[in-house]
Amino acid sequence: MFFLRGQTKIGKMSVVEPGVMIQSAELGEQVTIKSGSYLDQAKVGANSDVGPYAHLRPGTQIGQNCKVGNFVEMKKVKFGDRSKASHLTYLGDATIGTDTNIGCGTITCNYAVDHKKYETVIGNHVFVGSDSQFVAPVTIGDHAVIGSGSTITKDVPAEALAVARSKQVVKENYNPAKKKEEPK
Predict the structure, then answer these.
(1) Which of 87, 115, 125, 143 is catalytic?
(2) Burial environment of residue 175 by CB neighbours within 10 A (0 to 12, 13 to 18, 19 or more)
(3) Tell me: the pLDDT tens digits for 47-104?
(4) HSE of 57 in the Cβ direction (CA atoms, 13 Å)?
(5) Neighbours of 48 (CB within 10 A)
(6) What is the pLDDT of residues 167-181, one digit of tens each?
(7) Residues 94, 119 contacting (CB under 8 angstroms)
(8) Full 3-state SS string of 159-179
(9) 143 is catalytic
(10) Neighbours of 156 (CB within 10 A)
């Protein structure tokens, strides 16, 4: 069973799997919405796949031939044609270009201490490595590469590689819990 509410429109040859809730959303032709997904006032372009367990919130526009995978949440996102966010990702208040890959565990940090929301812009043909964070406002140029595990706080120019990680520190024989257990 699935639920269609409000002014929902579904294009020809589209598939809506069980457990889906769609509220006032628009699906293009040959769209697949997989089990457990929730769409609220979102648009999904032709030949795109969403889910399972994706959440598209108001103002989200998915382009054509896109993949929005399992446990991906988007709010007020313009997601360009042929782009992918395959799993475990939050994108809010963002514009994502065409042919861009968003790695697993990526988030846009769009809500600031001043209680305002800021936008992240990621260009065309960008590769974002897994577990990356974008602290808005920030812009990523076309053909840029973001190294896995990076926290991006400054703009990245086109065709650049950005890696923002702390240096790894290893302290051997450190475990304080183990030391307490040893008899004296």
Answers:
(1) 87
(2) exposed
(3) 999 999 999 999 999 999 999 999 999 999 999 999 999 999 999 999 999 999 999 9
(4) 12
(5) 24
(6) 888 989 888 776 666
(7) yes
(8) CCEECCCCCCCCCCCCCHHHH
(9) no
(10) 22
Q: Which residue has the tokens 């190294």?
A: 147
Task: Show me where the domains of the chain are located.
Answer: 3-181
Residue 137 CB neighbour total at 10 angstroms: 15
Q: How many Cα atoms are found within 13 Å in the side-chain-facing hemisphere of 134?
A: 32
- Per the CB < 8 A criterion, the answer to whether 183 and 164 are in contact is no
Cα–Cα distances (Å) from 10 to 19, 23, 24, 33, 119, in that order, read 16, 12, 10, 11, 29
State the Cα–Cα distance between residues 85 and 129, nearest whole angstrom.
11
Amino acid identity, position 65:
N
Element (H, E) at 128: strand 127-128
The enclosing H or E element of 71 equals: strand 67-79
Residue of 80, 73, 71 lying closest to 101 (CA atoms): 80
Q: Tell me the two tokens of residue 20.
A: 């889906």
Could you tell me how many residues make up the chain? 184
Q: Which CATH number fits domain 3-181: 2.40.30.10, 3.40.50.40, 3.40.50.720, 2.160.10.10?
A: 2.160.10.10
* Burial (0-12, 13-18, 19+ Cβ within 10 Å), 36: middle
pTM for this predicted structure: 0.91
